[in-house]
Amino acid sequence: MKALVTGGGGFLGAAITQQLLERGDRVTILARNRYPAIEALGAQSILCDLTDCPNLATLIAGHDVVFHVASKTGIWGRREDFMRVNVEGTRALIEACREAGINRLVYTSSPSATFDGQDAENATEADCTYPRHFEADYPLSKAIAEQLVLAANDEHLATTALRPHLIWGPADPHIVPRLISRRKQGRLARVGNGKNKVSITYIDNAAAAHLQAADALGQHSPNAGKPYFICDEHPVVLWEWIDQLLVDVGLSPVTRSVSVGTAHAIGAVLEWVWRVFRLGGEPPMTRFVASELASAHWYDCAAARADFGYKTVTSPSEAMSKTIAAFRPD
Prior knowledge:
Blueprint (H helix, E strand, L loop, with lengths): L1 E5 L4 H12 L3 E6 L4 H5 L3 E4 L8 H5 L4 E4 L10 H22 L3 E5 L11 E4 L13 H15 L6 E7 L2 E2 L6 H10 L5 E2 L5 E2 L2 E2 H14 L10 E4 L5 E2 H11 L8 E2 L1 H18 L9 H8 L2 E3 L2 H7 L7 H12 L3
Parallel strand pairs: 1-2, 1-4, 2-3, 4-5, 5-7, 6-15, 7-12, 8-11, 9-14
Antiparallel strand pairs: 10-13
Helix pairs in contact: 1-7, 4-5, 9-10
Protein backbone atom coordinates (compact mmCIF):
# COMPACT_ATOMS: atom_id res chain seq x y z
CA MET A 1 0.00 0.00 0.00
CA LYS A 2 1.16 3.51 -0.77
CA ALA A 3 0.09 5.91 1.98
CA LEU A 4 0.24 9.67 2.41
CA VAL A 5 0.35 11.08 5.96
CA THR A 6 -0.28 14.79 6.43
CA GLY A 7 1.52 16.04 9.50
CA GLY A 8 3.75 12.99 9.30
CA GLY A 9 6.47 14.65 11.37
CA GLY A 10 4.24 15.26 14.39
CA PHE A 11 3.64 13.09 17.44
CA LEU A 12 0.80 10.97 16.04
CA GLY A 13 1.73 11.38 12.38
CA ALA A 14 5.23 10.05 13.01
CA ALA A 15 3.86 7.03 14.89
CA ILE A 16 1.45 6.23 12.04
CA THR A 17 4.29 6.62 9.54
CA GLN A 18 6.56 4.32 11.53
CA GLN A 19 3.92 1.58 11.87
CA LEU A 20 3.18 1.75 8.14
CA LEU A 21 6.87 1.47 7.28
CA GLU A 22 7.41 -1.39 9.73
CA ARG A 23 4.83 -3.51 7.97
CA GLY A 24 6.25 -2.76 4.53
CA ASP A 25 4.05 0.02 3.19
CA ARG A 26 5.46 2.89 1.16
CA VAL A 27 4.88 6.20 2.92
CA THR A 28 5.02 9.86 1.95
CA ILE A 29 4.67 12.54 4.59
CA LEU A 30 3.24 15.93 3.68
CA ALA A 31 4.31 18.79 5.91
CA ARG A 32 5.53 22.37 5.84
CA ASN A 33 8.99 21.37 7.10
CA ARG A 34 11.51 18.57 6.56
CA TYR A 35 11.81 15.81 9.15
CA PRO A 36 15.15 14.06 8.57
CA ALA A 37 14.55 11.48 11.33
CA ILE A 38 11.33 10.34 9.64
CA GLU A 39 12.96 10.34 6.21
CA ALA A 40 15.77 8.20 7.65
CA LEU A 41 13.19 5.52 8.43
CA GLY A 42 12.33 5.33 4.74
CA ALA A 43 9.55 7.87 4.24
CA GLN A 44 9.47 10.28 1.32
CA SER A 45 8.61 13.95 1.89
CA ILE A 46 6.42 16.55 0.21
CA LEU A 47 6.87 20.12 1.40
CA CYS A 48 3.46 21.75 1.20
CA ASP A 49 1.03 23.94 3.12
CA LEU A 50 -2.48 22.55 2.66
CA THR A 51 -3.94 26.03 2.80
CA ASP A 52 -1.73 27.35 0.00
CA CYS A 53 -0.85 24.58 -2.43
CA PRO A 54 -2.39 25.03 -5.91
CA ASN A 55 -0.90 21.76 -7.24
CA LEU A 56 -1.94 19.63 -4.25
CA ALA A 57 -3.79 17.04 -6.32
CA THR A 58 -0.76 16.50 -8.51
CA LEU A 59 1.52 16.11 -5.50
CA ILE A 60 -0.62 13.47 -3.79
CA ALA A 61 -1.66 11.51 -6.89
CA GLY A 62 -0.79 7.83 -6.91
CA HIS A 63 -1.41 7.11 -3.24
CA ASP A 64 -3.88 4.47 -2.13
CA VAL A 65 -4.91 6.11 1.12
CA VAL A 66 -4.51 9.46 2.86
CA PHE A 67 -4.19 9.84 6.62
CA HIS A 68 -5.06 13.45 7.42
CA VAL A 69 -3.36 14.02 10.76
CA ALA A 70 -2.06 17.59 10.35
CA SER A 71 -3.89 20.08 12.51
CA LYS A 72 -3.49 23.32 14.42
CA THR A 73 -3.90 22.35 18.06
CA GLY A 74 -3.96 24.31 21.30
CA ILE A 75 -6.29 25.89 23.79
CA TRP A 76 -5.67 29.42 22.59
CA GLY A 77 -5.14 31.33 19.38
CA ARG A 78 -6.91 33.29 16.69
CA ARG A 79 -10.12 31.73 15.42
CA GLU A 80 -9.18 32.51 11.83
CA ASP A 81 -5.97 30.48 12.21
CA PHE A 82 -7.82 27.42 13.49
CA MET A 83 -10.39 27.75 10.72
CA ARG A 84 -7.81 28.27 8.00
CA VAL A 85 -5.68 25.26 8.94
CA ASN A 86 -8.22 22.80 10.30
CA VAL A 87 -11.25 23.60 8.18
CA GLU A 88 -9.99 25.09 4.92
CA GLY A 89 -6.94 22.81 4.88
CA THR A 90 -9.22 19.80 5.24
CA ARG A 91 -11.56 21.09 2.56
CA ALA A 92 -8.63 21.53 0.16
CA LEU A 93 -7.38 18.01 0.87
CA ILE A 94 -10.79 16.44 0.23
CA GLU A 95 -11.00 18.23 -3.12
CA ALA A 96 -7.45 17.15 -3.99
CA CYS A 97 -8.24 13.52 -3.13
CA ARG A 98 -11.18 13.61 -5.53
CA GLU A 99 -9.14 15.23 -8.29
CA ALA A 100 -6.27 12.76 -7.80
CA GLY A 101 -8.56 9.72 -7.74
CA ILE A 102 -7.65 8.69 -4.19
CA ASN A 103 -10.47 6.59 -2.75
CA ARG A 104 -9.69 6.37 0.99
CA LEU A 105 -9.32 9.16 3.54
CA VAL A 106 -8.84 8.62 7.29
CA TYR A 107 -9.20 11.82 9.31
CA THR A 108 -7.79 12.40 12.79
CA SER A 109 -10.54 14.17 14.67
CA SER A 110 -10.94 14.67 18.42
CA PRO A 111 -13.51 13.91 21.13
CA SER A 112 -13.42 17.64 21.85
CA ALA A 113 -15.51 18.04 18.69
CA THR A 114 -18.44 16.75 20.75
CA PHE A 115 -17.45 18.12 24.18
CA ASP A 116 -20.19 20.26 25.71
CA GLY A 117 -18.63 20.76 29.14
CA GLN A 118 -20.77 18.06 30.75
CA ASP A 119 -19.85 14.58 31.96
CA ALA A 120 -19.70 11.86 29.33
CA GLU A 121 -19.47 8.42 30.93
CA ASN A 122 -19.01 5.29 28.85
CA ALA A 123 -20.34 7.41 26.01
CA THR A 124 -20.90 6.12 22.50
CA GLU A 125 -20.81 8.00 19.23
CA ALA A 126 -24.62 8.08 19.26
CA ASP A 127 -24.58 9.68 22.71
CA CYS A 128 -22.32 12.56 21.70
CA THR A 129 -23.66 15.09 19.23
CA TYR A 130 -22.00 18.32 18.15
CA PRO A 131 -22.70 21.01 20.77
CA ARG A 132 -24.26 24.33 19.88
CA HIS A 133 -21.61 26.24 21.82
CA PHE A 134 -17.86 25.65 22.05
CA GLU A 135 -15.64 27.11 24.76
CA ALA A 136 -12.60 27.17 22.46
CA ASP A 137 -11.92 27.54 18.77
CA TYR A 138 -9.89 24.34 18.40
CA PRO A 139 -12.82 21.98 19.10
CA LEU A 140 -15.11 24.14 16.97
CA SER A 141 -12.74 23.85 14.01
CA LYS A 142 -12.34 20.09 14.52
CA ALA A 143 -16.10 19.61 14.60
CA ILE A 144 -16.55 21.49 11.33
CA ALA A 145 -13.67 19.62 9.66
CA GLU A 146 -14.97 16.26 10.86
CA GLN A 147 -18.37 16.97 9.37
CA LEU A 148 -16.74 17.94 6.07
CA VAL A 149 -14.86 14.64 5.96
CA LEU A 150 -17.87 12.49 6.81
CA ALA A 151 -20.12 14.35 4.37
CA ALA A 152 -17.56 13.68 1.62
CA ASN A 153 -18.03 9.91 1.86
CA ASP A 154 -19.51 8.55 -1.36
CA GLU A 155 -18.99 5.92 -4.05
CA HIS A 156 -15.71 7.54 -5.14
CA LEU A 157 -14.13 8.49 -1.82
CA ALA A 158 -14.56 6.45 1.35
CA THR A 159 -13.95 8.50 4.49
CA THR A 160 -13.89 7.91 8.22
CA ALA A 161 -12.94 9.97 11.28
CA LEU A 162 -11.15 8.78 14.41
CA ARG A 163 -11.37 10.58 17.74
CA PRO A 164 -8.39 9.46 19.87
CA HIS A 165 -8.62 10.90 23.37
CA LEU A 166 -5.66 12.38 25.25
CA ILE A 167 -2.80 10.82 23.31
CA TRP A 168 0.27 10.25 25.45
CA GLY A 169 3.55 8.36 25.36
CA PRO A 170 7.35 8.65 25.41
CA ALA A 171 7.61 11.32 22.69
CA ASP A 172 4.59 13.28 23.92
CA PRO A 173 5.24 17.00 23.29
CA HIS A 174 2.12 18.21 25.09
CA ILE A 175 0.35 16.46 27.97
CA VAL A 176 3.13 14.79 29.97
CA PRO A 177 5.81 17.51 29.65
CA ARG A 178 3.25 20.19 30.47
CA LEU A 179 2.16 18.37 33.64
CA ILE A 180 5.78 17.90 34.71
CA SER A 181 6.71 21.51 33.97
CA ARG A 182 3.75 22.96 35.84
CA ARG A 183 4.35 20.71 38.84
CA LYS A 184 7.98 21.79 39.03
CA GLN A 185 6.86 25.42 38.92
CA GLY A 186 4.23 24.82 41.62
CA ARG A 187 1.49 25.88 39.20
CA LEU A 188 -0.46 22.63 39.01
CA ALA A 189 -3.73 22.43 40.96
CA ARG A 190 -6.41 19.78 41.01
CA VAL A 191 -9.65 21.08 39.45
CA GLY A 192 -12.89 19.71 40.87
CA ASN A 193 -13.23 16.81 43.31
CA GLY A 194 -10.48 14.76 41.69
CA LYS A 195 -12.70 11.73 41.07
CA ASN A 196 -13.50 12.24 37.39
CA LYS A 197 -12.67 9.37 35.05
CA VAL A 198 -11.26 10.00 31.58
CA SER A 199 -10.19 7.93 28.62
CA ILE A 200 -6.56 8.12 27.52
CA THR A 201 -4.90 6.74 24.40
CA TYR A 202 -1.32 5.51 24.28
CA ILE A 203 0.43 6.70 21.14
CA ASP A 204 0.99 3.23 19.64
CA ASN A 205 -2.66 2.35 20.16
CA ALA A 206 -3.80 5.59 18.51
CA ALA A 207 -1.55 4.93 15.52
CA ALA A 208 -2.65 1.29 15.22
CA ALA A 209 -6.29 2.39 15.15
CA HIS A 210 -5.56 4.49 12.05
CA LEU A 211 -4.01 1.56 10.22
CA GLN A 212 -6.85 -0.75 11.23
CA ALA A 213 -9.47 1.77 10.09
CA ALA A 214 -7.71 2.33 6.75
CA ASP A 215 -7.34 -1.39 6.06
CA ALA A 216 -11.06 -1.94 6.58
CA LEU A 217 -12.21 1.19 4.76
CA GLY A 218 -14.04 0.92 1.46
CA GLN A 219 -17.08 2.35 -0.29
CA HIS A 220 -19.40 -0.17 1.36
CA SER A 221 -17.47 -0.95 4.55
CA PRO A 222 -19.14 -0.56 7.97
CA ASN A 223 -16.84 2.32 8.93
CA ALA A 224 -17.37 4.41 5.79
CA GLY A 225 -18.81 7.82 6.60
CA LYS A 226 -18.68 7.33 10.37
CA PRO A 227 -16.75 8.78 13.35
CA TYR A 228 -15.22 6.62 16.10
CA PHE A 229 -13.94 7.19 19.61
CA ILE A 230 -10.50 5.65 20.15
CA CYS A 231 -8.97 5.04 23.57
CA ASP A 232 -7.14 2.54 25.73
CA GLU A 233 -9.11 -0.36 27.14
CA HIS A 234 -9.99 1.18 30.52
CA PRO A 235 -10.51 4.76 31.70
CA VAL A 236 -8.39 6.18 34.50
CA VAL A 237 -9.25 8.44 37.41
CA LEU A 238 -7.57 11.52 35.97
CA TRP A 239 -5.99 13.02 39.04
CA GLU A 240 -4.90 9.67 40.45
CA TRP A 241 -3.23 8.95 37.10
CA ILE A 242 -1.54 12.36 37.11
CA ASP A 243 -0.29 11.91 40.68
CA GLN A 244 1.14 8.47 39.92
CA LEU A 245 2.85 9.80 36.81
CA LEU A 246 4.41 12.65 38.78
CA VAL A 247 5.62 10.34 41.54
CA ASP A 248 7.11 7.92 39.03
CA VAL A 249 9.20 10.69 37.44
CA GLY A 250 10.42 11.82 40.85
CA LEU A 251 8.00 14.61 41.70
CA SER A 252 5.45 14.98 44.47
CA PRO A 253 1.69 14.59 43.93
CA VAL A 254 -0.60 17.56 43.44
CA THR A 255 -1.58 19.10 46.77
CA ARG A 256 -3.58 22.20 45.82
CA SER A 257 -7.13 22.12 44.52
CA VAL A 258 -9.74 24.56 43.24
CA SER A 259 -13.41 24.13 42.51
CA VAL A 260 -14.48 23.88 38.89
CA GLY A 261 -16.52 27.07 39.32
CA THR A 262 -13.48 28.99 40.53
CA ALA A 263 -11.28 27.58 37.76
CA HIS A 264 -13.91 28.44 35.16
CA ALA A 265 -14.18 32.01 36.46
CA ILE A 266 -10.40 32.42 36.49
CA GLY A 267 -10.27 31.07 32.96
CA ALA A 268 -12.87 33.57 31.76
CA VAL A 269 -10.93 36.47 33.28
CA LEU A 270 -7.60 35.31 31.85
CA GLU A 271 -9.12 34.84 28.41
CA TRP A 272 -10.38 38.42 28.54
CA VAL A 273 -6.97 39.73 29.63
CA TRP A 274 -5.13 37.80 26.91
CA ARG A 275 -7.60 38.92 24.27
CA VAL A 276 -7.77 42.60 25.23
CA PHE A 277 -4.05 43.08 25.79
CA ARG A 278 -3.05 40.67 22.99
CA LEU A 279 -0.63 38.78 25.18
CA GLY A 280 1.57 36.09 23.72
CA GLY A 281 1.39 32.40 24.55
CA GLU A 282 -1.55 30.70 26.21
CA PRO A 283 -3.41 31.76 29.36
CA PRO A 284 -2.52 29.48 32.29
CA MET A 285 -6.22 28.60 32.57
CA THR A 286 -9.19 28.81 30.20
CA ARG A 287 -12.85 27.86 30.54
CA PHE A 288 -12.32 24.92 28.19
CA VAL A 289 -9.38 23.56 30.20
CA ALA A 290 -11.26 23.98 33.48
CA SER A 291 -14.17 21.97 32.14
CA GLU A 292 -11.88 19.27 30.71
CA LEU A 293 -9.92 18.86 33.95
CA ALA A 294 -12.98 18.56 36.17
CA SER A 295 -15.43 16.53 34.08
CA ALA A 296 -15.73 12.84 33.35
CA HIS A 297 -15.18 12.00 29.70
CA TRP A 298 -14.64 8.37 28.90
CA TYR A 299 -15.82 6.49 25.89
CA ASP A 300 -17.05 3.12 24.66
CA CYS A 301 -14.97 1.86 21.72
CA ALA A 302 -17.34 -1.00 20.90
CA ALA A 303 -18.25 0.51 17.54
CA ALA A 304 -14.59 0.73 16.48
CA ARG A 305 -14.02 -2.88 17.53
CA ALA A 306 -17.10 -4.07 15.66
CA ASP A 307 -16.74 -2.03 12.47
CA PHE A 308 -13.00 -2.22 11.77
CA GLY A 309 -11.47 -4.51 14.38
CA TYR A 310 -9.91 -1.87 16.64
CA LYS A 311 -7.51 -3.53 19.04
CA THR A 312 -4.90 -2.00 21.31
CA VAL A 313 -1.32 -3.13 20.73
CA THR A 314 0.27 -1.93 23.97
CA SER A 315 -0.93 -2.70 27.50
CA PRO A 316 -1.38 0.04 30.13
CA SER A 317 1.55 -1.23 32.21
CA GLU A 318 3.92 -1.34 29.25
CA ALA A 319 2.74 2.06 28.06
CA MET A 320 3.40 3.63 31.45
CA SER A 321 6.80 1.97 31.80
CA LYS A 322 7.95 3.28 28.42
CA THR A 323 6.65 6.76 29.16
CA ILE A 324 8.20 7.00 32.61
CA ALA A 325 11.54 5.81 31.23
CA ALA A 326 11.45 8.60 28.68
CA PHE A 327 10.63 11.39 31.16
CA ARG A 328 12.40 10.27 34.34
CA PRO A 329 15.56 12.30 34.98
CA ASP A 330 18.81 10.40 34.40
